[in-house]
Structures are given as structure tokens and as C-alpha cells.
């Protein structure tokens, strides 16, 4: 099951460049380093680094000395106390299991491992967030204080929450907000009542009248209708 999941995520990231967080960290060494893609000014300690991917954007806080603090799902800290094992580069399996078990760590990696061949944007969120950023040294100290294992939630506690907490003092995620907006617009769109109703009727036709098909057919459109 896990093998299959890992396989699927790997294939998916190959086909559509959809890298679920750092899903291919295992072979990160073969990729171009960001420095080779034109001259980038070195970031300063406390800067907010952003690595845009196709769907998700990964975030970290630069600590200076080629090191980046970032939050990433990881199962290993739940299973072992072996610091050396935990600090090794995160594999797909660790990441996926971490996601499912809702465990993550705030850890330090090199700039190259963090960027994973993508361009790094610096401080871009300063313009987008309404809050004023702390001085860079404060930002870096806040990040360093949070090192270690923490609970993870894709929506409510992700890598973006970590960096906004460090830099602006309040945990926020524009990716989560966008997702919620999208969900809200689906719920508020009355056509989804019709769509779910039709899907329910099709499932009744295909699988017969049973509580498992009839109940959702009535309850899902009804709930959507009331929530809309
Ligand atoms: C990022 O912002 C800080 C101030 O908050 C500034 O000191 C630093 O130079 C900025 N870094 C870049 C690369 O623009």
C-alpha cells in the first residue's frame, strides 16, 4: 500500500512536475543548484525564502551560512530518537507517512536541498502580508526556537504557517485561504446540489437501493443546499 502510494507520487511528480512538498528529495543531488541559474544575491539571515512549485509553494527561513529552517512532514521523529538518522535527507516514504500520521519537523537543511533545483524568491510575502515583518535577526531566532518535532496539518499547520509565524508573528497560509475560498465557492454554488443529487441517483441505479447509497443521496445535497 505504502509502496504503491510512494510509486504514484513519484510518477505524478515526473509526469506533471507536481512535487508534493519535497516529494523527490532522495535524488535531489542530480538537480541543478539554484546558483547555476543566473547570479542570485545571497539571502540574508532572517529572510523569508519561497520556492514555487507547480501546485504548492514551499517556504523556509534563511539562517545564514547556507542553512535554511523549514517545516516538512516527517515520520521518523515519531519512531526513533536517533538524531543522526533523523537529520539525514528526508525520503518520500518518510514524507508521506509523516503527512498521514500528521507529524512534521522544523529542521535545517542546506540551501540546495531546500530549493531542490527551483529558483528561490526572497521576501516576496512582505508585500502580500498586511503585517509588518520583525527585524531579520528576530525572525531567525524565532525559527531556531521552533526546531524539532511538531504536529502537522496540511491545512492548519503547514510550512507557510511556520514562516509567517516567524516573520510576522501570526500564523497564516495564503494557500490554505485560497483552498478554503475555492471550497466555499463550490459549497455556495447551487449547481453542486444538482451535481451531488445526480451522482447519488446514479449510485442508486448502479449499486441498488441501500442505506449506503440512499442516505448520502439525500443528505449530501441537503447539507450543501442548507450551507449555500
Ligand atoms: C528582506 O527583508 C529584510 C527586512 O525585513 C531586509 O533587511 C533584507 O535585505 C531583505 N532581503 C532581500 C534579499 O531583499
UniProtKB/TrEMBL annotation:
Q: Where is the active site?
A: 159
Q: Where is the LRAT domain?
A: 48-175
PANTHER family, alphabetically?
A: LECITHIN RETINOL ACYLTRANSFERASE (PTHR46678)
- What gene makes this protein? LRAT
Key word Cell membrane present in the record? no
Gene Ontology molecular function: phosphatidylcholine-retinol O-acyltransferase activity
KW GTP-binding (keyword) present: no
List this protein's GO terms for biological process: retinol metabolic process; vitamin A metabolic process
Quote the Pfam families the UniProt record gives.
Answer: LRAT
Q: Can you name this protein?
A: Lecithin retinol acyltransferase
Domain of life according to the entry: Eukaryota
For this UniProt record, the keywords arranged alphabetically read as follows: Acyltransferase, Membrane, Transferase, Transmembrane, Transmembrane helix
What is this organism's lineage? Eukaryota, Metazoa, Chordata, Craniata, Vertebrata
Species name = Lates calcarifer (Barramundi)
Q: According to its record, what are the GO cellular component terms?
A: rough endoplasmic reticulum
The residue ranges crossing the membrane are: 193-210
Amino acid at each position: 500500500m505504502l509502496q504503491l502510494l510512494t510509486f504514484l507520487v513519484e510518477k505524478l511528480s515526473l509526469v506533471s512536475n507536481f512535487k508534493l512538498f519535497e516529494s523527490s528529495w532522495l535524488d535531489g543531488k542530480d538537480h541543478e543548484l539554484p546558483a547555476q541559474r543566473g547570479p542570485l544575491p545571497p539571502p540574508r539571515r532572517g529572510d523569508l525564502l519561497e520556492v514555487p512549485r507547480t501546485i504548492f509553494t514551499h517556504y523556509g527561513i534563511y539562517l545564514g551560512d547556507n542553512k535554511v529552517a523549514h517545516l516538512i512532514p516527517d515520520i521518523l521523529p515519531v519512531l526513533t530518537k536517533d538524531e543522526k538518522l533523523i537529520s539525514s535527507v528526508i525520503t518520500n516514504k518518510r514524507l508521506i507517512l509523516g503527512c498521514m500520521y500528521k507529524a512534521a519537523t522544523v529542521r535545517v537543511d542546506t540551501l540546495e536541498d531546500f530549493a531542490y533545483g527551483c529558483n528561490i524568491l526572497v521576501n516576496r510575502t512582505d508585500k502580500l502580508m498586511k503585517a509588518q515583518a520583525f527585524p531579520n535577526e528576530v525572525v531567525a531566532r524565532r525559527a531556531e526556537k521552533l526546531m524539532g518535532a511538531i504536529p502537522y496539518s496540511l491545512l492548519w499547520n503547514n510550512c507557510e504557517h511556520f514562516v509567517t509565524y516567524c516573520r510576522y508573528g501570526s500564523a497564516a497560509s495564503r494557500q490554505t485561504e485560497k483552498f478554503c475560498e475555492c471550497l466555499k465557492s463550490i459549497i455556495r454554488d447551487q449547481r453542486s446540489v444538482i451535481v451531488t443529487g445526480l451522482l447519488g441517483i446514479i449510485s442508486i441505479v448502479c449499486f441498488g437501493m441501500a442505506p449506503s447509497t440512499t442516505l448520502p443521496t439525500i443528505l449530501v445535497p441537503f447539507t450543501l443546499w442548507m450551507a449555500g
